[in-house]
Amino acid sequence: xxxxxxxxxxxxxxxxxxxxxxxxxxxxxxxxxxxxxxxxxxxxxxxxxxxxxxxxxxxxxxxxxxxxxxxxxxxxxxxxxxxxxxxxxxxxxxxxxxxxxxxxxxxxxxxxxxxxxxxxxxxxxxxxxxxxxxxxxxxxxxxxxxxxxxxxxxxxxxxxxxxxxxxxx
Length: 169
Hints:
Shape: elongated
Order of helices and strands: HHHHHHHHHH
Number of strands: 0
Low-confidence stretches: none
Strand content: under 5%
Radius of gyration: 19 Å
Distance between the termini: 41 Å
């Protein structure tokens, strides 16, 4: 089994920029979901009126974007697990915790339950737990920025290496 993991991590390292790029793009899509959550669900709860309400195709687009969170969580987890493999650091561990607590949000406290709780429809969730679910969702924000910064640095490093290789010939 350790040979399988070694082969996997060797492949991951060889394709790090591609893996990081895909995971970052999927993760950045979560801003769309967080914008909806803030503009419709949170705004309605705090002010009594949502900033907007999505219907029809737009509702289904937001659902689709929300489900891109699953591959994003896996991809981003691999980024920070890979960092921790190279040596312990507090930030990668913290980011790993922040993004993996999202699984609770996805499978235990769904957005539909949050909306139903705020709409005072029949739900088994207590009111305060809806706010916990929202807070969990927003734990992604610092990780999204950190990951985007990591991608930017990896792209800069790649450009420097490409330039160096061009002059080495």
